[in-house]
Structures are given as structure tokens and as C-alpha cells.
């Protein structure tokens, strides 16, 4: 049935139902607003459907396979360990389905209207939402743009059956024998590691001096060592030049140290960053200010230069992280409700689900020194922790960065098992204005990896127990 295009009124219109948009919609509804969410794809956005969640499901499956094959040190030996990759993919999709279904239930439970289609701004109070057969006008008091990002496509390496992006890598129906990855950032390293664990011969081509730029070299060195143990080749300061594609594979040409090389593989994964989805919304004609890269400019409350239009997530400055988008979504919803919430990124963590896992929050040692802050950098190794030893997983360390004058915790870096879980305590410490003494005096359960945080705090205050000062 075709409905006449009479404007539908709503208090807050959220464009995009990813981890930023759906969280913003729920918080706005909790604060008494009538909320409509527009989604052109699937609830949950990239993160739930083709990003964070499915990649972690594959990473977990890869770890299980790797552990099954290599647990001789613990007296466990398995023969003829096999992978049914179709079942692995079924498991991954099952996780995704549960979570996207959960998002739908949460939106419904909070009385948020969900509309499917593409939104286009008519003016600063109106959008048209279009699907394949019709369009509908919506009038709003406030709008939150949460349209996320998409993989950057290099003209020389256009996506195809054999030249794939992260979505393609997540949806392969077989384990490739050989995989080339252009890009040694978080996404490339995580997906390359998945297939390396399943036995794929993986080669990385990275233009920068090191993989995982932005993380400390002490941390990335551990990841590189782990990858090389699996037979992974890593070429840094390397430039990918071209690709020849056939029905069965690719031949990639690249240059490293002035020498041109070629490598053959089943697939080429191109993972060189993501670009904001701000180019098909019509926001230019509304006058929303953007950078040359299509990043929307916002203030401390996620408000654009148009006072009733907000923007969050990958389309604004800062790291492209799902939890950053969710955080900003809450800030925007609260700002619309008249609250004084403002963004503060110091306590926002970043994580890589590599081997070992990496996590960082707040200041690094180098960053603090650059800002002229006198610090104490206190390290404690996983190898001195009983739980890490019992897990037979002792590579790594925790570094606590504290302000010298008063012991205030201003940053932390973790490389080791469960770093992704351990970092939350340190985010809380920074957010709450805690000192190293506060952490050292907090009783941590034994034996746990969490004790490493306490032990590093004891190093910071000069009273370590389980390592010699």
C-alpha cells in the first residue's frame, strides 16, 4: 500500500542504528523523547553485523583450533584436529543473529520507532526517508547523525571476488591456503591472525614503519613475534603496486627496500582504513560543517554548527571505535534533553584482539612526556603472575602511567591475555581520578590476571611484592 507523504513528526530522529545510533535512540527515549530511528541496512550496523562481533567470533574459533593443536606443554595432545569452516561460519552468524535480535527488542521495549530506508535532509527540520518503492517525510525537533563508515577502496585494488574488504574476509566460505593483507592496522591484524590460526599462509604489506601504528613498539613487538611463530610474513615500509586477478587467485606486486616483489595467494584483503558515510545525506545543503575528509565538526556535546543537528561515531573526529560511538550517543541524547553532559575522551580505551591482546587507555609514557607531564611508568610482567602461568600464557606486561607529583593514574598499556577485559578497571581509575595507591590498596582476588594491575600500582608507589625493586 502506498501511503501519502504527509509528514510524520518526531522529537528526535536518529539516522543509523549501529552502536552509536541505537544507543542514542534508547537513551533519548529514556529521557522522555519521542524517537524515530532510520536504518538503511540491518540493526546493529557494521559492528554487530560485519565488524566487531563476527570478527571476535572467528577469532575465538581460531583460538580453539590453535589450542586443540598445541597443548602438549600441558600434557594434552590431540590428533587429526579438523575444521568444518561452514560450521564456524554458522556459529558466527548465530552470535550476530542473537545480538541484532536483541537490539530490535531493546528498541521496541523503549518504544523507539524503527524505519528502514535512506535518509536525505531537506532542511534542518525535515528529512525524506526513501526505500525502493516509496518515500516518507519526517519532521524532527532534533536529529542525531550516526551513519558510520565504510572501508576505503584503493583505485588500483578495486573490490571483486578475489580482492576483498573486511566484510568479504569475514564471509569467506573456505579457509584460504594463502592470504595477502594490505594494511597492518587493527582490522588487518585481527583478520589476518584469524586465518593464520586456521593454517593459512599470511603475508602483510604495510606502508608505515611498523604494524599497529598508535600502539607502543614494546607492545607491537610481541604481536609481531607471535605472528612470525605462525609463519606469517610481515613487510613494513612496503608499497603495494598492483594486482592481477584470476578465477582461482591473485598475484600481488609490491615494493620493499627498493626491490619489487610478487606474491601469489587465494585472496587479497585490502584493509587500509575506513571513510565516513557523510556523502549521501544532503547535509551540505543544510549547511552542516565538514572537513575535507567528510568528517562532521562537533562541539563538546556532539552538536554540529546547526544547533538541532548532532553527529556521533565514525563520522566525527577521533578513533573509530564502537564504544566511542555509544558513549557519544548518550552524550548527544542527554544534551538534547537539556543536561550538561560533555565528551571527555581521556578514559576511552582502544583494544586489539591480536595475540597477545593489546589495550591502551589515557596517556602513553611518550605522550605524557610530550605534554610536559612528569610521570612514573611502572611495569609488571605477566610472567610473574600465577594465573598467567597456570594458563600457560605469560607473554606481556602491564604499564601504569602515573603523575609523579601525586600518583594520579593518567594512562595504562596492557599486552597480554585478556588485556581487553583488564583495561576497564584502568579506564575507571582514570575516570574516577584514582591514584596508584588507591589501586594498590584495592584487594584483588587471587589468583587472577587482575592482580597484575595491583602489582603494577605497587611498583608505581615503590613497594612491589612479587618482583624485586
From TrEMBL:
Residues 348-456 form the Pyridine nucleotide-disulphide oxidoreductase dimerisation domain. This is Dihydrolipoyl dehydrogenase. Residues 11-329 form the FAD/NAD(P)-binding domain. It is an enzyme of class 1 (oxidoreductase). Binds 1 FAD per subunit. It comes from Metabacillus bambusae. Its EC number is 1.8.1.4. SUPFAM superfamilies: FAD/NAD(P)-binding domain (SSF51905), FAD/NAD-linked reductases, dimerisation (C-terminal) domain (SSF55424). Pfam families: Pyr_redox_2, Pyr_redox_dim. The active site is a redox-active disulfide bond. It catalyses: N(6)-[(R)-dihydrolipoyl]-L-lysyl-[protein] + NAD(+) = N(6)-[(R)-lipoyl]-L-lysyl-[protein] + NADH + H(+). One of its GO terms (molecular function) is dihydrolipoyl dehydrogenase (NADH) activity. Belongs to the class-I pyridine nucleotide-disulfide oxidoreductase family. Its cofactor is FAD. The gene is lpdA. PROSITE patterns: PYRIDINE_REDOX_1 (PS00076). Keywords: Disulfide bond, FAD, Flavoprotein, NAD, Oxidoreductase, Redox-active center. InterPro entries: Class-I_Pyr_Nuc-Dis_Oxidored, FAD/NAD-bd_sf, FAD/NAD-binding_dom, FAD/NAD-linked_Rdtase_dimer_sf, Lipoamide_DH, Pyr_nuc-diS_OxRdtase, Pyr_nucl-diS_OxRdtase_dimer, Pyr_OxRdtase_I_AS.
Amino acid at each position: 500500500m502506498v501511503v501519502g507523504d504527509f509528514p510524520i513528526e518526531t522529537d528526535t530522529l536518529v539516522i543509523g542504528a549501529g552502536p552509536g545510533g541505537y544507543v542514542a535512540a534508547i537513551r533519548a527515549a529514556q529521557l522522555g523523547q519521542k524517537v524515530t530511528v532510520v536504518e538503511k541496512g540491518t540493526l546493529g550496523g557494521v559492528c554487530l553485523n560485519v565488524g566487531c562481533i563476527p570478527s571476535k567470533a572467528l577469532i575465538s574459533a581460531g583460538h580453539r583450533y590453535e589450542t586443540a593443536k598445541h597443548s602438549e606443554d600441558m600434557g594434552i595432545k590431540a590428533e587429526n584436529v579438523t575444521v568444518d569452516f561452514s560450521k564456524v561460519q554458522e556459529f558466527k552468524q548465530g552470535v550476530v543473529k542473537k545480538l541484532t535480535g536483541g537490539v530490535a527488542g531493546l528498541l521496541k521495549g523503549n518504544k523507539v520507532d524503527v524505519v528502514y530506508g535512506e535518509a536525505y535532509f531537506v532542511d534542518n527540520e525535515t528529512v525524506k526517508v526513501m526505500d525502493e518503492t516509496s518515500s516518507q517525510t519526517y519532521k524532527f525537533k532534533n536529529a542525531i547523525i550516526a551513519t558510520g563508515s565504510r572501508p576505503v577502496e584503493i583505485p588500483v585494488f578495486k573490490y571483486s571476488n578475489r580482492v576483498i574488504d573486511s566484510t568479504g574476509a569475514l564471509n569467506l566460505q573456505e579457509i584460504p591456503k594463502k592470504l595477502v593483507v594490505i594494511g597492518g592496522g587493527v582490522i588487518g591484524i585481527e583478520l589476518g591472525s584469524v586465518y593464520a590460526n586456521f593454517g593459512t599462509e599470511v603475508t602483510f604489506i604495510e606502508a608505515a614503519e611498523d604494524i599497529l601504528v598508535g600502539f607502543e613498539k614494546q607492545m607491537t613487538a610481541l604481536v609481531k613475534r607471535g605472528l612470525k611463530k605462525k609463519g606469517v610474513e610481515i613487510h613494513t615500509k612496503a608499497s603495494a603496486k598492483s594486482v592481477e586477478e584470476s578465477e582461482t587467485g591473485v598475484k600481488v606486486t609490491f615494493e620493499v627496500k627498493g626491490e619489487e616483489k610478487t606474491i601469489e595467494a587465494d585472496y587479497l584483503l585490502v584493509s587500509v582504513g575506513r571513510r565516513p558515510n557523510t556523502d549521501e545525506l544532503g547535509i551540505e545543503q543544510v549547511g552542516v560543517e565538514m572537513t575535507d575528509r567528510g568528517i562532521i565538526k562537533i562541539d563538546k556535546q556532539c552538536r554540529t554548527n546547526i544547533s538541532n543537528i548532532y553527529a556521533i561515531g565514525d563520522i566525527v573526529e577521533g578513533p573509530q571505535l564502537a564504544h566511542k560511538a555509544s558513549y557519544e550517543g548518550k552524550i548527544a541524547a542527554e544534551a538534547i534533553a537539556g543536561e550538561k553532559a560533555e565528551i571527555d575522551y581521556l578514559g576511552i580505551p582502544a583494544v586489539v584482539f591480536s595475540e597477545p591482546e593489546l589495550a591502551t587507555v589515557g596517556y602513553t609514557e611518550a605522550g605524557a612526556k610530550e605534554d610536559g607531564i612528569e610521570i612514573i611508568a611502572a611495569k609488571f610482567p605477566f610472567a610473574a603472575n600465577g594465573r598467567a602461568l597456570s594458563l600457560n600464557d605469560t607473554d606481556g606486561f602491564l604499564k601504569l602511567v602515573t603523575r609523579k607529583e601525586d600518583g594520579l593514574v593518567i594512562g595504562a598499556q596492557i599486552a597480554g591475555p585478556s588485556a581487553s577485559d583488564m583495561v576497564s578497571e584502568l579506564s575507571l581509575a582514570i575516570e574516577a581520578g584514582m591514584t596508584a595507591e588507591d589501586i594498590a590498596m584495592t584487594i584483588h582476588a587471587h589468583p587472577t590476571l587482575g592482580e597484575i594491575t595491583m602489582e603494577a600500582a605497587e611498583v608505581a608507589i615503590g613497594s612491589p611484592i612479587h618482583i624485586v625493586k
